[in-house]
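Researcher: We're teaching a course module on how sequence relates to structure. For the next exercise, students receive a sequence and then see the predicted structure as tokens, so they can try to spot secondary structure elements on their own. Here is the exercise chain.
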Amino acid sequence: MLIPATATPAARPLPPVMPTEGRASLLLVDDDPDLLRLLAIRLKANGYAVNAVDSGAKALAAIAASRPDVVLSDLRMSGMDGMALFQEIQASYPGLPVIILTAHGTIPDAVAAVKRGVFGYLTKPYDADELLAQISRALSLHGGAKGRAGAGQAWREEIVTRSSLMEDVLSRAQRVAASDASVLIQGESGTGKELLARAIHRASPRAGQPFVAINCGAIPETLLESELFGHTRGSFTGAIADHRGLFVSADRGTLFLDEIGDMPLALQVKLLRVIETREVRPIGASRSIPIDVRILSATHRDLAKEKETGGFREDLYYRLNVVTLRLPSLAERPEDIALLARHFLSAMAPRYGREKASFAPEALELLGKARWPGNVRQLYNVVEQSVALCPTEVIPAVFVEQAIQVEMHEMTSFEDARKRFERDYLTRLMKLTHGSVTQAARLARRNRTEFYKLLQRHGIEAAMFKPGPR
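Model: And here is the predicted structure for the students to work with:
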């Protein structure tokens, strides 16, 4: 069956149709209103959610409002033509497939467009079967964020969003999940990097196997090596039993290395060797253990700059950074703030015996206007403080305002938090050993010279902890 290039029904403005849950969504772009209407009717009849607009500018606005799974655009349009629209889409939404619709006279242009990254093209008049086949193929290869009709979405159920930026990240994550490629997840602290890593694991062929996560910046170097690679009994003081290590624990599954940018250089060398040989040798062992592990890593640091300054190994950088996914900050996805706040509230309210708790409109407006340097994690904390302190079912703006102020006051940078941890840790050791640097260094598993430097960095003097008069 052919869909004609022109149609007779009277032209009327076509209202935008928002995507329907569970159906793949298509965005149609054509400045011919008759063809636009006829094509929309046919695609809706085949089970798709369709939004139809008559210009490239309106198409970009529609994508920003609700990211479709596939865009079908006429090539020749007044104002922004199909190729200009494609270039804008490619710049902002590189995972979004675009199919160009063209008349016979512009086929060479359409072929050239395909070479530049357009998913495909169709000539007018369109063959209905060919059109549906192109759309089906685009959905199959690119994995729409909302998916085809009936497609399972359990893999991303922990991630709540209606942001076009987030949907684009999730679309790319779903595609890369099918492979074993290493993925580097970048984003500010609190944006949900581990949630995305878990989602990739659930969408992968390894979903039935272990997902193991470790924060490389929260564990001292000596302990981190043991945690990752394992150790044998007696290999060092305190090793009272064999320890498998996380690589072995994650065998046939996924290992998530959070804050990989904080891993010491000496361990980066050993990690690179494990990745290259697919074998791990526990501390003190004489033989290596073969492993089959997919590695996902994350960092809030700029590893490209760290690589240039020598803070991160270049060879390891390219091993881990096969595919990069960048999570947007909460400020970049403001449409998700109220959605996330309601989601968090419904999840935690029963714990406080407040099943019917809700936010007053002014409270939601205040949340939407707030700055969120701590991102989604900070929003979660603000919601919990609000529901915990408010005595009424409806949470007014005043409690949200108080929670935001407390949270902003308490929010600190990662470096400041680490310095505070080190200072407290060293202080406890010196108290425990009554000021003996030798004993404290032994407990910290650091050599005496290095431990002295740590004490000097934090202005801690051993004499302060020695018993007797000072």
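Model: If you want an answer key for the exercise: The first helix runs from residue 33 to 45. The chain has 19 helices and 16 strands.
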